[in-house]
């Protein structure tokens, strides 16, 4: 029988093509890093470890074909139709692999990693994701290019049939591929590749397809199962000590109960509060942090004329993490954000405190709030939600797949605030912007910068916030309103380390002429501290279940922030960083410089107290949520 008619000839083509394409993808991603990629040693490790992951992934990819080839009757293979079908299968297979490589390239440029849980999450929200791709990239030409490259590849490899397996060993072939896949499931994980101190080397050592399915399996992580722990009661006792501040007293001696009474002297200030969480507003976009491009004149002015917190850090790398931290004042739990978890109803949130004082609380979003479970989460936790459906088309100046332009979201806000003010009630509103998100489109004529450019989108968002404040000045509630501006996360979280500290640095501005005196605060703090600090500024006395603290009530030596990916959990002190990673044994410390973002390994002796603080915070937050201790009192 001719070699082309042999049963497993297709595998002799598929496996080497898969390995070659995976290697080329790895090299292209590494080259795109420029100087961020280490020297020959880093390249050698990435390529050597990468071949192992590629081989395992090739076995996964090939297994369905193995089963098909084993069961397909050989007598049909002499048919000309079968030969045509074989070419079509090769083209479709190679087109799929080239498409994945292209998707990896685009994902790498955005997130600095192979496919991870973000890619998994995006499959749930196909409308937004596909729309974002269509608005950001020339989809037609890209797909045509994928098809053409696949056709060229099939032609160039038409005679390739490396190591064709014998037709007589069908059972052995099926068993061999099955054993490889099952054995890799039992012995290999997504983080087995992480042998380097350099994040990029570890990412390049993996395989995108393998990483995708590994992220799918680990999208929900049980802290107690995967991370280093303390005895449950010891963790909660330590956490109680960490959250204690002079103005707070615990309501009980129960070590599991974080409930505290916060007391301030003097009358409360029942001012309106407008919290704007700005999409992807990195600190390095702003002039007050040294940017010379003039992208944020309005925000820079508000920083100088308001209360400016210069060392604020985002808890995570996605909007849903920022929303979690701001509303719950709790550290991130591994895996999914609480915003998207079951059992997240009736929690103690910012709105809980405001609503107890007769406020009307709103969550306003310019997109469709089913994305990331926003509508369900906020409406179940004390907020009235208004999203894209509440905005009349005549009020929209521009929109993309993520939502309306920021100025149109602010118009919705002005309408809501007027209505609440006329009812005689104060209001609290959390507005989530979207314009500073790819595809970076906005109304024309607002800023003298090109559409589709991130810097232009930052400049537009700044313009929209300035325009919002200018319009708000003419409304009767303006003089009694506090504006809080904070980023949901940074524009990019990629770096040489798993948790590049400078990539989590974001601005926080509290601005209210006549109510909040201008000052610069250089205290290290986290998004989870925004709510307690704001309530302290308003002089609120309340019962709290927050893990966050009022930065002005906390001793400077207690300053800390939380930074994380969906797996790596970091506790940041002014000069040190503790990182907890899955499998319990991964607790890494580093000495850091907040001014430069420099990270270096700590002395081998480490800092056990810092590690135990990190464990107490993250284990305690996970326990509190699972045991219902984040619920609002009486829920």
From TrEMBL:
<protein>
    <submittedName>
        <fullName>Phosphoglycerol transferase MdoB-like AlkP superfamily enzyme</fullName>
    </submittedName>
</protein>
<keyword id="KW-0812">Transmembrane</keyword>
<dbReference type="InterPro" id="IPR000917">
    <property type="entry name" value="Sulfatase_N"/>
</dbReference>
<dbReference type="InterPro" id="IPR017850">
    <property type="entry name" value="Alkaline_phosphatase_core_sf"/>
</dbReference>
<keyword id="KW-1133">Transmembrane helix</keyword>
<feature type="transmembrane region" description="Helical">
    <location>
        <begin position="46"/>
        <end position="70"/>
    </location>
</feature>
<dbReference type="Pfam" id="PF00884">
    <property type="entry name" value="Sulfatase"/>
</dbReference>
<feature type="transmembrane region" description="Helical">
    <location>
        <begin position="82"/>
        <end position="108"/>
    </location>
</feature>
<keyword id="KW-1003">Cell membrane</keyword>
<dbReference type="InterPro" id="IPR050448">
    <property type="entry name" value="OpgB/LTA_synthase_biosynth"/>
</dbReference>
<feature type="domain" description="Sulfatase N-terminal">
    <location>
        <begin position="272"/>
        <end position="539"/>
    </location>
</feature>
<keyword id="KW-0472">Membrane</keyword>
């Amino acid at each position: 029988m001719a070699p082309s008619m042999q049963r497993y000839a297709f595998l002799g083509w598929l496996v080497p093509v898969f390995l070659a394409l995976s290697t080329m993808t790895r090299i292209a991603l590494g080259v795109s890093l420029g100087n961020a990629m280490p020297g020959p040693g880093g390249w050698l490790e990435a390529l050597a470890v990468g071949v192992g992951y590629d081989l395992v992934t090739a076995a996964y990819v090939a297994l369905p074909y193995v089963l098909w080839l084993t069961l397909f009757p050989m007598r049909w293979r002499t048919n000309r139709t079968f030969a045509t079908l074989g070419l079509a299968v090769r083209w479709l297979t190679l087109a799929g692999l080239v498409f994945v490589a292209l998707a990896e390239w685009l994902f790498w440029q955005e997130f600095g990693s192979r496919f991870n849980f973000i890619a998994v999450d995006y499959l749930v929200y196909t409308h937004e994701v596909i729309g974002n791709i269509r608005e950001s990239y020339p989809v037609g030409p890209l797909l045509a290019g994928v098809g053409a490259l696949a056709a060229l590849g099939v032609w160039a490899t038409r005679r390739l049939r490396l190591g064709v397996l014998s037709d007589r060993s069908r059972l052995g072939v099926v068993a061999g591929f099955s054993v490889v896949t099952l054995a890799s499931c039992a012995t290999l994980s997504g983080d087995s590749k992480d042998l380097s101190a350099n994040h990029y080397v570890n990412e390049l050592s993996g395989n995108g397809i393998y990483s995708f399915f590994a992220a799918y399996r680990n999208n929900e992580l049980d802290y107690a199962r995967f991370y280093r722990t303390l005895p449950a009661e010891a963790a909660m006792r330590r956490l109680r000590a960490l959250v204690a501040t002079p103005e707070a007293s615990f309501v009980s001696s129960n070590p599991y109960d974080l409930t505290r009474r916060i007391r301030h002297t003097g009358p409360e200030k029942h001012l309106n509060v407008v919290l704007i969480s700005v999409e992807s507003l990195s600190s390095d976009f702003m002039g007050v942090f040294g940017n010379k491009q003039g992208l944020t004149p309005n925000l820079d002015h508000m920083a100088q004329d308001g209360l400016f917190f210069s060392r604020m850090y985002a808890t995570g790398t996605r909007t849903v993490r920022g929303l979690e931290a701001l509303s719950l004042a709790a550290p991130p739990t591994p895996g999914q954000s609480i915003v998207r978890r079951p059992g997240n109803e009736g929690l103690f949130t910012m709105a809980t405190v405001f609503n107890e004082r007769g406020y009307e609380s709103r969550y306003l979003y310019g997109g469709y709030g089913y994305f990331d479970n926003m509508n369900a989460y906020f409406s179940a936790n004390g907020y009235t939600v208004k999203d894209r459906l509440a905005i009349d088309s005549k009020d929209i100046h521009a929109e993309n797949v993520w939502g309306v332009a920021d100025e149109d979201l602010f118009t919705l806000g002005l309408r809501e605030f007027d209505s609440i003010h006329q009812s005689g009630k104060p209001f609290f509103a959390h507005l989530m912007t979207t314009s500073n998100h790819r595809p970076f489109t906005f109304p024309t004529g607002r800023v003298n910068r090109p559409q589709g450019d991130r810097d232009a989108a930052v400049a537009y968002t700044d313009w929209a916030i300035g325009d919002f404040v200018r319009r708000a000045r003419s409304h009767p509630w303006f003089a009694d309103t506090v504006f809080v501006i904070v980023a949901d996360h940074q524009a990019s979280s990629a770096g040489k380390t798993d948790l590049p500290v400078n990539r989590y640095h974001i601005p926080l501005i509290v601005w209210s002429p006549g109510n909040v005196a201008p000052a610069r605060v250089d205290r290290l703090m986290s998004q989870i501290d925004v709510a307690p600090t704001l309530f302290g500024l308003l002089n609120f006395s309340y019962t709290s279940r927050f893990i966050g603290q009022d930065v002005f009530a906390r001793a400077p030596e207690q300053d800390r922030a939380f930074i994380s990916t969906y797996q790596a959990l970091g506790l940041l002190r002014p000069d040190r960083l503790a990182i907890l990673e899955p499998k319990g044994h991964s607790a890494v410390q580093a000495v850091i410089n907040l001014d430069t973002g420099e990270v270096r390994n700590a002395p081998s002796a480490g800092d056990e107290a810092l590690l135990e603080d990190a464990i107490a915070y993250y284990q305690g937050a996970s326990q509190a949520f699972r045991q219902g201790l984040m619920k609002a009192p009486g829920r």
